Amino acid sequence: MTALLDGLAVNPAAPADLLLRLLEPEYESAWSALASRRPSFPEVVTAAIVTHPHPRVRRALARNPFVDPGVRGRLVDDPEWFVRARLAARPHRTRPVRPLPDRVIDRMLTTYDGDCLEELYFSRQIPFRFQRSYGSHPMASVRRMATTMWAHLSENERAALLNDPHPQVRASAQHMLDTDDAEAMERRLGPLPVPRNHGTLLILVNYRLSQAVVDWLLRDPDYDNSWVLAHNYSTPPEVVAPLVEHPDPKVRLELARRADLAPALVTILARDPDPRVRTAISVRPELTEDERAAVDYTVDTDEDFGPVEHHTRPAPDPDTSAAYARSRHPLLRRRAAQDPTLPAALVARLAHDDDLGVRVLLAHNHPAAPPPLLLRSYLEYRGAARDLLTEHPRFPVTGLGARFADADAPDERRLAVLDPDLGPGTADRLTRDPDAAVRAGATRHPRLPAGRLLALLDDQELGEHAAANPALPETVMRGLLA
């Protein structure tokens, strides 16, 4: 009975009064499915969940990755710490994160503390544009957070933080200013040689180094020092240059990624024996298309090409995206394909690209991805985010039953049950398919013959999916609660 109740709890046709009954103590086993797996609720059910006396129900809603973030955000002032902590945390480990509403984020930043705030910071639920506004917030603790965006701040914004009326904001801003001060960083490191720990490595890898520290890194026998010098933006050119001959390709790869790499060193590394180094050189922004083509780079087709959480990034530059979309280099075209604002003409161009990565990234990330591209990407791509393609609003579902119901591959037969016009007989047959996902999808299909649907309620494996079928008669739904 628990499985049937779980199915009923997520049934999109279940009436509001039935869902409210499922929130009663008698049906406690269905609470998690109801609150954490439904993509939407009638308003009266939402209100009942948000005010439910048992925190387990509210906590389940807080971690629901399918519902609109605004619905989750109604729990922002929940009296239970565990509920607030779940709201602050990433809702799901593998599904893309959607941002919380601004008013909810502001409420959390100004009322949460400790572990809840830390969960929020790392949850990717705060949009980049909201983070850019930290510096003008009336609360000092939020303005202090603006210093974590230091690289993205204008000179005027930095100056405002350095002169903030609150001492902790000023101190945090000064700390960021000091990271580009070699003498300040040397004082923070302490007497040389320094112990290798998280704090000293942070400085050595990312902050400006004094000549004394550079000299020590050159003398010290630690094997990682060459990588540190190759990576650190402040390493003097005369120290960078000899590293092109370093035997470790990881060191040379870091050199290839330096923004200030001298043209002569770019030329040398373009002929590097390691393909990763040559490939990193080939996508440098200063190269012309002919110069890129002259590099023997490699293109990996085994990568995971999935959706990008665009709200966490600065908006792409339209001119750069357009140039990348027209590039002969597939890795640059892949970058362009991730831009959700790419114009229609360039979308059409990349939809027929000869690189799998370009096509799949465009399919995942553009709201106007052409339907044929979405289907082709599903059929050709085998990466972790593949099934998310079928959730794209433009995924072409009509006709999939006739095309794929008899396919040899089970992942293609799964497409058949997405067809809203799937034949009743075909749906019936697919409930007996060798593949579990096909059987489940067919059992949930609203065109499954009524007799077969009712029979499957007694099936140990498929009963839950039968109870989730929107074609299940309301009288049968209510009977499951009798």
UniProtKB/TrEMBL annotation:
* Stretches assigned to coiled coil: none
Q: Name one GO molecular function term.
A: translation initiation factor activity
Question: Where in this protein does the record put region Disordered?
Answer: 302-323
Q: Which UniProt keywords apply?
A: Initiation factor, Protein biosynthesis
Q: Where is the composition biased (Basic and acidic residues)?
A: 307-316
| Name of the protein | Translation initiation factor IF-2
- According to its UniProt entry, this protein's organism is Streptomyces himastatinicus ATCC 53653
